[in-house]
Amino acid sequence: MENFRDFERDLGEMREYYSQGKTKEASWRKSQLKGLLTLLKEKEGDILNALKQDLGKHQVETFRDEIGTLIKTLNLALESLREWMSGRKAKLPRIALLTSAEIVPEPLGLVLIISSWNFPFGLSLEPMIGALAAGNTVVLKPSELAPASASLLATALSTYLDNKAVKVIQGGPSVGEQLLQQRWDKIFFTGSARVGRIVMSAAVKHLTPITLELGGKCPAVLDYLSSSWDIKVAVKRIVYGKYGCCAGQACIAIDYILVEKKFTRTVVELMKSMIKEMFGENPKESHSIARIINKQHLLRLKNLLKDPHVDASTVYGGSVDEDNLFIEPTILVDPPLQAEIMTDEIFGPLLPIITLEKIEDSIQFINSKPKALAIYCFTKNKTLQRRMISETSSGSVTFNDTIIQVCYHMQLIPSHLEELLEVDLVGTMESSHLTHSAMRKPLQGEVSLLNFGLDFLHGTITSFNSWLLLSISIILD
Amino acid sequence: MNISMELLRDFSSVGAGASRAFSYPFTRKTKQRQLSFAYLIRTSYSFKSCSATLSLTAEVEEKPKFDVDNAALLAGELRKSFNSGRTTNYEWRMSQLKSIEKMLEEKENDITEALYKDLSKPGLEAFVAEISQVKSSCKLALKELSRWMIPEKVKTSLTTYPSSAEIVSEPLGVVLVISTWNFPFLLSLDPVIGAISAGNAVVLKPSEISPATSLLLSNLVEEYLDKSAIRVVEGSVDETTALLEQKWDKILYTGSAKVGRIVMAAAAKHLTPVILELGGKCPAVVDSNINLQVAVRRIIYGKWACNNGQACIGVDYIITTKDFAPKLIDALRYELEQFFGKDPMESKDISRIVSSSHFARLAMLMDDDLVSDKIVLGGQRDANQLKIAPTILLDVPEDAQIMQEEIFGPLMPILTVEKLEDSFKIIQSKPKPLAAYLFTNDEQLKKNFVQNISSGGMLINDTIIHVATDGLPFGGVGESGMGSYHGKFSFDAFSHKKAVLYRSFDADASIRYPPYTTQKQRLLKAVINGDIVSIILALIGW
């Protein structure tokens, strides 16, 4: 644990290094990004182990959710860096003769990234990629609740990156507090709303712009689907989006589901069989579901089930293994709405199903709660889709899938480049995307078969991978 | 002495005379129609002050005050209005914008008059700096809104095929705009236009230090705009505090860094995002290889013709070379006379200092021992009329108060350096300003300036007008603020950019689901790594 004086000295040195201008150079930024790529390749085994240790995550889950997404982001950043760094011409009124204007992205300086324990690599490195690509010096404070990952980050980053510009400071809340007292040019925080408020209040002192990636109760609305294939896929995606994603301990994991009463039984049966199919008869043995991070959270989750009404609504699972920090996939139908399980973010493998008379009531239900980070809606009903977008508010909305909006990241066109560098101050439970691409070519959404052929010809790794992935999945299915 | 303009009520010194900010009585209609609470009603009030401690006691003749309960009711009412969907449709937004346009046409005289009352702002300056800016902002929104409201299509990679994605701009909800006194009309309505165009309900709290404009805004908004969604709350510290206790979906604050912190701290409780438009010491670096006459005119325009230096983007101080300084000062002297006549104190073309407290503050900056002998031009002052002549000081020491805080007045220090590159260090040693100006024809110097000086905005070879460019965002960095607006950036500032992804049930890639077989694992890895050989090997089950 570092002490106060050390922080101040270290930060002073980092600011000095920044003022020398090295980090502004494109070559430096590229070298850091490449360094991260090398880190991910060479330390892959160690990363998989660390996550196994901290969270009992299966290798494939780790690779898919953390390493894989980081590699994709790095490739995107390396490819787009030049474009992101260049100024953008601004439109001028015709009366302005002999004048030119541009918006120039410049690094903020020294930024602090505070990450969370559930995706310790992803949530540390994804913002760091943005910070480095933008030319900043970075201090990372990983979560102490995932100690193996934190210490791996500390050693790996100091080996692979410029350690005059990137430092990892490990520790718990007291270290976090001390860090928040320092002067930063930006703070990027991932975690709970409660701590988010603490971070924002601390940022007031130096008028530090902040980005807060918080959470919320992310609902999944499951409309009646006529095709049995569709229902199967929907339930598969829901099950994976809950239990297969750090055992539900993810800000964008499905928190609860909304279904029409008449459809509920089908859904529950299908979910039970899907859980068995994905995680085996004995999920604890299959090691395909992550553990609960620590005793405190396990007890918290156990408590959610304690309420007799909640307990009575459990239709599947419910067993808690305190010694192994394991809770089996649990489904509940219509727990009382005032119970904690329906008022607080669950962050665990407990899935309440709330039944409604008609699916349109889901909109009102969702609006009665604070804005969520993500809303998932499984429906083919275009009207419901439109209403879901315009009548609810959330960080994002995904139709007919879960999680994928961040794991396989989209290349978004921000409205102005500054989103990479400036304030994305986030309101309660809302979020901005972690990474943005500043590709300014106007682009179409739906990818046609023609494009897919052309992309293959272009042979960029991303699309090549994707094409293969698609064809492989077709083969496998 | 550090007087926060927003937080101290103005006070009149004992025995004062003529035109002053608070020297005329307010009368306002009591509004008790369909609302469950009364607006703040003020009639005349006077202050007793103790000059020693600068404390003051207000003798307000008035009841219903706007307290926390009133604020909560107001916020609740607007939220209900917003939740009803009233403000989100295109027609409502356009109707409000059109009403603002109409208001600007019909009430231009009233606006100019209020600005003159508050600041002795010359009519032409009021028109150019405030009214025309609001007009053009409104026009732009009217013209572009339909385009701004269209969701942005986004490219999706084949990884998520088949899928389509877009970014939807949705209103944040109920927002609070707190504006300031120096451009009281512009800095109130410009953000409000942004908030309306983005489909929000808005509460505007104008500055009490410009009371005529504050009152006018309150009346105009009531007359022209939709009361159920757009409101003005007049008042000062108490009212602002009451408003800040509420939960807003966004707050845009224009003013000082000190109060900016108070606003942000209050916002932190509700995790409300904020835009803070603050200030700073905006430097102008002047090279010698320029068209001196044009440069000097533009500098004067960006200082004394711009609310008499009381502007967040006004030129705060100049840095030039030792050799060039005398020429620069001569040119300034000459052009100042052209602009404001032989006796600038008599000129009708220059705004006065807004209040006695600011006058006192500026007087103290001038009387500081470290600088009082550095005045090379001007220095005249008239406390009764709240006028200070354009004043230039040469080579003031860095530690003088005038170089430690934002001047916000007609005092212009000129610092001299050996070579112009040395100016960079001086600027970098201070907090990042809202704007930085450079006058030069040297391309390399321009490049270096842009690369090495960090500021909210920058203008080469002119001053202040960069904020009139819709295509450029207006905002600060570091101490000068966070967030930005103007043009489409206003629309974006008050919108939530919602990410929407549409997926299909077809072609479901099971590779991402458990059970995690070894084959899937190898395949997934191979695919992400793009290694063809491994992919093939994995496929054939090697």
Protein model, in words:
- The complex is a heterodimer of chains A (477) and B (542).
- By secondary structure, chain A is α/β, with parallel strands linked by helices.
- Helices cover 47% and strands 14% of the residues of chain A.
- Chain A has helices spanning 4-19, 26-42, 44-55, 59-85, 122-133, 147-160, 173-181, 193-204, 228-242, 261-279, 283-286, 295-306, 308-312, 340-343, 361-367, 382-391, 404-407, 449-458, 461-476; strands spanning 88-89, 102-103, 110-114, 137-141, 166-168, 186-190, 210-213, 219-222, 256-260, 314-316, 320-321, 326-327, 330-333, 350-356, 372-378, 394-399.
- The longest helix of chain A is centred in the N-terminal third of the chain and has 27 residues, at 59-85.
- Chain A starts with a helix and ends with a helix.
- Chain B is of the alpha/beta class and 542 residues long.
- Chain B has three domains: 68-278, Aldehyde Dehydrogenase, Chain A, domain 1 (3-Layer(aba) Sandwich), CATH 3.40.605; 283-474, Aldehyde Dehydrogenase, Chain A, domain 2, CATH 3.40.309; 516-540, no CATH class.
- Chain B contains 17 helices and 22 strands.
- In chain B, the strands form six sheets. In chain B, strands 12-15-16-11-10-17-18 form a seven-stranded mixed β-sheet, with helices on both faces. In chain B, strands 7-6-5-8-9-20 form a six-stranded mixed β-sheet, sandwiched between helices.
- In chain B, helix 3 (108-119) packs antiparallel against helix 6, helix 4 (123-148) packs parallel to helix 5 and helix 9 (292-301) packs across helix 10.
- Residues 1-52 of chain B have low confidence and may be disordered.
- Strand 16 (394-399) of chain A pairs parallel with strand 22 (495-503) of chain B.
